[in-house]
Protein backbone atom coordinates (compact mmCIF):
# COMPACT_ATOMS: atom_id res chain seq x y z
CA UNK A 1 0.00 0.00 0.00
CA UNK A 2 1.04 3.58 -0.61
CA UNK A 3 1.63 5.87 2.39
CA UNK A 4 -0.48 8.93 3.07
CA UNK A 5 1.73 12.02 2.97
CA UNK A 6 0.88 14.83 5.40
CA UNK A 7 2.51 18.23 4.99
CA UNK A 8 3.05 19.92 8.34
CA UNK A 9 1.87 23.37 7.24
CA UNK A 10 2.82 26.67 8.88
CA UNK A 11 5.34 25.72 11.61
CA UNK A 12 4.32 28.58 13.91
CA UNK A 13 0.66 27.54 13.71
CA UNK A 14 -1.17 24.46 14.92
CA UNK A 15 0.07 22.26 12.08
CA UNK A 16 2.75 20.62 14.26
CA UNK A 17 0.28 20.30 17.15
CA UNK A 18 -2.31 18.37 15.17
CA UNK A 19 0.28 16.29 13.29
CA UNK A 20 1.49 14.94 16.62
CA UNK A 21 -1.97 13.47 17.19
CA UNK A 22 -1.63 11.17 14.18
CA UNK A 23 -0.01 8.54 16.42
CA UNK A 24 -3.16 8.33 18.55
CA UNK A 25 -5.05 6.69 15.70
CA UNK A 26 -4.67 3.33 14.01
CA UNK A 27 -4.92 3.97 10.29
CA UNK A 28 -5.16 1.24 7.68
CA UNK A 29 -2.20 2.75 5.82
CA UNK A 30 1.10 4.25 6.85
CA UNK A 31 1.05 8.00 7.48
CA UNK A 32 4.17 10.10 6.95
CA UNK A 33 4.61 13.71 8.05
CA UNK A 34 6.64 15.97 5.77
CA UNK A 35 8.25 18.63 7.93
CA UNK A 36 11.00 19.55 10.36
CA UNK A 37 11.47 16.80 12.91
CA UNK A 38 13.00 19.22 15.42
CA UNK A 39 9.93 21.47 15.26
CA UNK A 40 7.76 18.43 15.97
CA UNK A 41 9.95 17.35 18.88
CA UNK A 42 9.99 20.87 20.33
CA UNK A 43 6.20 21.14 20.06
CA UNK A 44 5.78 17.71 21.63
CA UNK A 45 7.86 18.85 24.61
CA UNK A 46 5.85 22.05 24.91
CA UNK A 47 2.63 20.03 24.93
CA UNK A 48 4.01 17.37 27.28
CA UNK A 49 3.39 14.65 24.71
CA UNK A 50 5.55 11.57 24.90
CA UNK A 51 5.66 10.52 21.25
CA UNK A 52 8.03 8.15 19.52
CA UNK A 53 9.27 9.80 16.35
CA UNK A 54 11.01 7.94 13.54
CA UNK A 55 12.85 9.80 10.78
CA UNK A 56 12.62 7.92 7.50
CA UNK A 57 14.14 8.29 4.05
CA UNK A 58 12.40 8.35 0.69
CA UNK A 59 13.43 4.77 0.00
CA UNK A 60 11.54 3.69 3.14
CA UNK A 61 8.22 4.78 1.58
CA UNK A 62 8.06 1.62 -0.52
CA UNK A 63 5.65 -0.87 1.09
CA UNK A 64 5.71 1.09 4.35
CA UNK A 65 3.47 -0.45 6.99
CA UNK A 66 1.42 1.39 9.64
CA UNK A 67 3.24 2.08 12.89
CA UNK A 68 2.70 3.37 16.40
CA UNK A 69 5.58 5.78 15.75
CA UNK A 70 5.26 9.18 14.13
CA UNK A 71 7.02 8.77 10.78
CA UNK A 72 8.69 11.94 9.50
CA UNK A 73 10.43 12.87 6.27
CA UNK A 74 12.69 15.50 7.76
CA UNK A 75 12.73 18.81 5.86
CA UNK A 76 14.78 21.30 7.83
CA UNK A 77 13.28 24.69 8.55
CA UNK A 78 16.11 27.22 8.10
CA UNK A 79 14.93 29.75 10.68
CA UNK A 80 13.89 29.48 14.30
CA UNK A 81 10.25 28.56 14.87
CA UNK A 82 8.35 30.11 17.76
CA UNK A 83 4.83 28.87 18.30
CA UNK A 84 2.43 31.73 17.66
CA UNK A 85 4.95 33.98 15.89
CA UNK A 86 4.71 34.02 12.09
CA UNK A 87 7.94 34.49 10.16
CA UNK A 88 7.82 35.28 6.41
CA UNK A 89 11.38 33.97 6.11
CA UNK A 90 10.02 30.45 6.68
CA UNK A 91 7.58 30.69 3.77
CA UNK A 92 9.99 29.06 1.32
CA UNK A 93 10.27 26.12 3.72
CA UNK A 94 6.47 25.80 3.93
CA UNK A 95 6.23 25.66 0.14
CA UNK A 96 9.14 23.21 0.02
CA UNK A 97 7.23 20.70 2.14
CA UNK A 98 4.30 20.90 -0.27
CA UNK A 99 6.65 20.50 -3.23
CA UNK A 100 8.13 17.41 -1.60
CA UNK A 101 4.68 15.86 -1.36
CA UNK A 102 3.90 16.74 -4.97
CA UNK A 103 7.19 15.36 -6.28
CA UNK A 104 6.90 12.13 -4.30
CA UNK A 105 3.48 11.56 -5.84
CA UNK A 106 4.82 12.33 -9.31
CA UNK A 107 7.60 9.81 -8.74
CA UNK A 108 5.11 7.13 -7.72
CA UNK A 109 5.91 6.88 -4.01
CA UNK A 110 2.43 8.01 -2.95
CA UNK A 111 -1.03 8.75 -4.32
CA UNK A 112 -2.39 11.07 -1.64
CA UNK A 113 -1.42 14.32 0.05
CA UNK A 114 -3.11 15.66 3.18
CA UNK A 115 -2.22 19.24 3.96
CA UNK A 116 -2.12 20.93 7.34
CA UNK A 117 -2.98 24.65 7.19
CA UNK A 118 -0.67 27.35 5.87
CA UNK A 119 -0.90 31.10 6.29
CA UNK A 120 -1.51 32.67 2.87
CA UNK A 121 -0.87 36.19 4.12
CA UNK A 122 2.61 35.51 5.45
CA UNK A 123 3.56 33.58 2.29
CA UNK A 124 2.51 36.54 0.17
CA UNK A 125 4.46 38.85 2.49
CA UNK A 126 7.55 36.86 1.57
CA UNK A 127 7.11 37.91 -2.05
CA UNK A 128 5.47 34.73 -3.37
CA UNK A 129 2.00 35.07 -4.87
CA UNK A 130 0.01 32.31 -3.18
CA UNK A 131 -3.78 32.02 -3.38
CA UNK A 132 -4.00 28.72 -1.55
CA UNK A 133 -3.21 25.01 -1.67
CA UNK A 134 -5.93 24.37 -4.25
CA UNK A 135 -4.54 26.77 -6.82
CA UNK A 136 -0.91 25.87 -6.02
CA UNK A 137 -1.49 22.15 -6.55
CA UNK A 138 -3.36 22.76 -9.80
CA UNK A 139 -0.40 24.77 -11.10
CA UNK A 140 2.19 22.20 -10.01
CA UNK A 141 0.27 19.31 -11.57
CA UNK A 142 -0.40 21.43 -14.67
CA UNK A 143 -4.16 21.03 -14.38
CA UNK A 144 -6.18 23.82 -15.97
CA UNK A 145 -9.19 23.48 -13.70
CA UNK A 146 -9.79 21.98 -10.26
CA UNK A 147 -12.73 22.22 -7.90
CA UNK A 148 -12.62 22.92 -4.19
CA UNK A 149 -15.10 20.88 -2.14
CA UNK A 150 -15.62 20.81 1.60
CA UNK A 151 -17.40 17.94 3.28
CA UNK A 152 -18.62 16.95 6.72
CA UNK A 153 -21.11 14.42 8.05
CA UNK A 154 -24.08 16.55 6.98
CA UNK A 155 -23.21 17.88 3.53
CA UNK A 156 -20.74 18.39 0.71
CA UNK A 157 -20.27 21.84 -0.77
CA UNK A 158 -18.29 22.48 -3.95
CA UNK A 159 -17.26 25.94 -5.14
CA UNK A 160 -17.41 27.49 -8.60
CA UNK A 161 -14.84 30.10 -7.54
CA UNK A 162 -12.38 29.90 -4.67
CA UNK A 163 -10.10 32.60 -3.30
CA UNK A 164 -11.26 35.69 -5.19
CA UNK A 165 -12.27 39.18 -4.08
CA UNK A 166 -16.05 39.32 -4.05
CA UNK A 167 -16.11 42.01 -6.74
CA UNK A 168 -14.47 39.55 -9.17
CA UNK A 169 -16.80 36.60 -8.56
CA UNK A 170 -19.51 37.57 -11.07
CA UNK A 171 -16.89 37.76 -13.82
CA UNK A 172 -16.11 34.07 -13.26
CA UNK A 173 -19.76 32.96 -13.42
CA UNK A 174 -19.61 31.89 -17.04
CA UNK A 175 -21.10 29.03 -19.05
CA UNK A 176 -17.64 27.60 -19.63
CA UNK A 177 -16.67 27.70 -15.95
CA UNK A 178 -19.97 26.17 -14.86
CA UNK A 179 -19.76 23.37 -17.43
CA UNK A 180 -16.16 22.54 -16.53
CA UNK A 181 -16.97 22.56 -12.82
CA UNK A 182 -20.01 20.32 -13.17
CA UNK A 183 -18.05 17.86 -15.31
CA UNK A 184 -15.25 17.65 -12.74
CA UNK A 185 -17.75 17.10 -9.94
CA UNK A 186 -19.65 14.40 -11.85
CA UNK A 187 -16.44 12.62 -12.90
CA UNK A 188 -15.13 12.67 -9.33
CA UNK A 189 -18.33 11.28 -7.85
CA UNK A 190 -18.41 8.56 -10.51
CA UNK A 191 -14.79 7.60 -9.91
CA UNK A 192 -14.40 8.00 -6.17
CA UNK A 193 -17.90 7.64 -4.72
CA UNK A 194 -19.16 5.20 -7.38
CA UNK A 195 -22.25 7.38 -7.88
CA UNK A 196 -23.00 7.27 -11.60
CA UNK A 197 -25.35 10.26 -11.64
CA UNK A 198 -24.81 12.44 -8.55
CA UNK A 199 -27.56 14.76 -7.35
CA UNK A 200 -26.17 18.28 -7.66
CA UNK A 201 -27.98 21.39 -6.40
CA UNK A 202 -26.64 24.58 -7.98
CA UNK A 203 -26.94 27.87 -6.10
CA UNK A 204 -27.78 31.11 -7.78
CA UNK A 205 -25.33 33.98 -7.59
CA UNK A 206 -27.74 36.62 -6.37
CA UNK A 207 -30.12 36.75 -3.38
CA UNK A 208 -33.20 34.61 -4.02
CA UNK A 209 -31.46 33.31 -7.16
CA UNK A 210 -32.10 36.66 -8.80
CA UNK A 211 -35.86 36.83 -8.09
CA UNK A 212 -36.69 36.34 -11.74
CA UNK A 213 -34.27 39.00 -12.86
CA UNK A 214 -35.17 41.70 -10.34
CA UNK A 215 -31.94 41.14 -8.39
CA UNK A 216 -29.50 40.31 -11.17
CA UNK A 217 -29.56 38.49 -14.48
CA UNK A 218 -26.79 35.92 -14.07
CA UNK A 219 -29.29 33.17 -13.26
CA UNK A 220 -31.46 33.84 -16.32
CA UNK A 221 -28.65 34.47 -18.77
CA UNK A 222 -25.97 31.99 -17.60
CA UNK A 223 -26.67 29.64 -14.70
CA UNK A 224 -30.15 28.32 -15.55
CA UNK A 225 -29.42 27.66 -19.25
CA UNK A 226 -26.36 25.60 -18.27
CA UNK A 227 -28.38 23.64 -15.70
CA UNK A 228 -31.17 23.00 -18.21
CA UNK A 229 -28.66 21.65 -20.72
CA UNK A 230 -27.31 19.15 -18.19
CA UNK A 231 -30.87 18.14 -17.26
CA UNK A 232 -31.72 17.64 -20.94
CA UNK A 233 -28.73 15.29 -21.17
CA UNK A 234 -30.07 13.16 -18.31
CA UNK A 235 -28.09 14.46 -15.35
CA UNK A 236 -29.41 15.05 -11.83
CA UNK A 237 -28.55 18.75 -11.76
CA UNK A 238 -31.07 21.22 -10.35
CA UNK A 239 -31.34 24.95 -9.72
CA UNK A 240 -30.59 27.63 -9.63
CA UNK A 241 -31.53 27.51 -5.96
CA UNK A 242 -31.67 30.36 -3.51
CA UNK A 243 -28.59 30.00 -1.31
CA UNK A 244 -30.44 31.16 1.79
CA UNK A 245 -32.58 28.01 1.85
CA UNK A 246 -31.06 25.20 -0.23
CA UNK A 247 -28.72 24.09 2.55
CA UNK A 248 -31.76 23.12 4.63
CA UNK A 249 -32.28 20.37 2.05
CA UNK A 250 -28.63 19.29 1.91
CA UNK A 251 -29.54 15.69 2.74
CA UNK A 252 -31.44 15.40 -0.53
CA UNK A 253 -28.31 16.01 -2.62
CA UNK A 254 -24.90 14.45 -3.00
CA UNK A 255 -23.32 17.89 -3.29
CA UNK A 256 -24.31 21.55 -3.41
CA UNK A 257 -22.45 23.81 -5.83
CA UNK A 258 -22.02 27.32 -4.43
CA UNK A 259 -20.94 30.22 -6.60
CA UNK A 260 -18.32 31.59 -4.22
CA UNK A 261 -16.37 30.84 -1.07
CA UNK A 262 -18.47 32.62 1.55
CA UNK A 263 -21.77 31.59 0.00
CA UNK A 264 -21.31 27.94 0.86
CA UNK A 265 -18.56 27.39 3.37
CA UNK A 266 -19.93 29.31 6.37
CA UNK A 267 -22.99 27.06 6.36
CA UNK A 268 -20.95 23.88 6.16
CA UNK A 269 -18.51 24.97 8.84
CA UNK A 270 -21.33 25.99 11.17
CA UNK A 271 -23.03 22.63 10.69
CA UNK A 272 -19.94 20.63 11.65
CA UNK A 273 -16.66 22.49 11.86
CA UNK A 274 -14.54 19.91 13.64
CA UNK A 275 -15.50 17.05 11.32
CA UNK A 276 -15.11 19.06 8.10
CA UNK A 277 -12.45 18.42 5.50
CA UNK A 278 -11.34 20.07 2.27
CA UNK A 279 -11.01 17.99 -0.91
CA UNK A 280 -9.56 19.04 -4.27
CA UNK A 281 -11.39 17.54 -7.24
CA UNK A 282 -9.71 17.21 -10.63
CA UNK A 283 -6.13 16.42 -9.60
CA UNK A 284 -4.35 13.22 -10.66
CA UNK A 285 -3.91 12.42 -6.95
CA UNK A 286 -6.13 12.54 -3.90
CA UNK A 287 -5.65 15.75 -1.95
CA UNK A 288 -7.47 16.47 1.27
CA UNK A 289 -6.96 19.05 3.98
CA UNK A 290 -8.27 20.37 7.22
CA UNK A 291 -11.11 22.87 6.90
CA UNK A 292 -9.52 25.44 9.22
CA UNK A 293 -6.63 27.85 9.35
CA UNK A 294 -3.35 28.01 11.22
CA UNK A 295 -4.89 29.25 14.50
CA UNK A 296 -1.60 30.85 15.45
CA UNK A 297 -3.13 32.25 18.63
CA UNK A 298 -3.53 28.76 20.15
CA UNK A 299 -0.48 26.97 18.73
CA UNK A 300 1.57 25.28 21.41
CA UNK A 301 -1.19 25.69 24.02
CA UNK A 302 -2.81 22.27 23.79
CA UNK A 303 -6.12 23.75 22.63
CA UNK A 304 -5.82 22.70 18.98
CA UNK A 305 -8.31 20.07 17.83
CA UNK A 306 -6.95 17.49 15.40
CA UNK A 307 -10.31 15.97 14.43
CA UNK A 308 -10.40 17.58 10.99
CA UNK A 309 -6.90 16.29 10.16
CA UNK A 310 -7.82 12.78 11.27
CA UNK A 311 -10.95 12.86 9.10
CA UNK A 312 -8.89 14.16 6.17
CA UNK A 313 -6.45 11.25 6.50
CA UNK A 314 -9.27 8.72 6.82
CA UNK A 315 -10.97 10.17 3.75
CA UNK A 316 -7.75 9.93 1.72
CA UNK A 317 -7.43 6.27 2.69
CA UNK A 318 -11.06 5.35 2.01
CA UNK A 319 -11.53 7.29 -1.21
CA UNK A 320 -8.55 5.56 -2.79
CA UNK A 321 -9.88 2.15 -1.87
CA UNK A 322 -6.91 1.31 0.30
CA UNK A 323 -4.31 1.95 -2.42
Topology of this protein?
Blueprint: E1 4-7, H1 15-20, E2 31-35, H2 37-46, E3 53-56, E4 70-74, H3 91-106, E5 112-115, H4 120-125, H5 133-140, E6 147-151, E7 156-159, H6 166-172, H7 175-192, E8 200-203, H8 218-232, E9 237-241, E10 255-258, H9 261-272, E11 277-281, E12 286-290, H10 307-319
Parallel strand pairs: 1-2, 1-5, 2-4, 3-4, 5-12, 7-10, 8-9, 8-10
Antiparallel strand pairs: 6-7, 6-11, 11-12
Written description of the protein model:
The protein is α/β, with parallel strands linked by helices and 323 residues long. It folds into 2 domains: 1-143 and 285-323, Isopropylmalate Dehydrogenase (3-Layer(aba) Sandwich), CATH 3.40.718.10; 144-282, 3-Layer(aba) Sandwich (Isopropylmalate Dehydrogenase). 34% of the residues lie in helices and 17% in strands. It has helices at 15-20, 37-46, 91-106, 120-125, 133-140, 166-172, 175-192, 218-232, 261-272, 307-319; strands at 4-7, 31-35, 53-56, 70-74, 112-115, 147-151, 156-159, 200-203, 237-241, 255-258, 277-281, 286-290. The chain has a 12-stranded mixed beta sheet with strand order 3-4-2-1-5-12-11-6-7-10-8-9, sandwiched between helices. β8, α8 (218-232) and β9 form a beta-alpha-beta unit. The longest helix has 18 residues, at 175-192. It starts with a strand and ends with a helix.
Amino acid sequence: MYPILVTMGEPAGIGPDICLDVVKHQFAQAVVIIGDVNVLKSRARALNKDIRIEVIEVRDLVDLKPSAKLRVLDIECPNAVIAGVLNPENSAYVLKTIDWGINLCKMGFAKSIVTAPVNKEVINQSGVKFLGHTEYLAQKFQVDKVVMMLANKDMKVALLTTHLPLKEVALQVTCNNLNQTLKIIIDYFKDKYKISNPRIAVCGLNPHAGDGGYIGLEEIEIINPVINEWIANGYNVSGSHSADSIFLSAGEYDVILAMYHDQGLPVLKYSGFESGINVTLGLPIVRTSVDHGTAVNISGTGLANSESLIHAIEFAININGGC
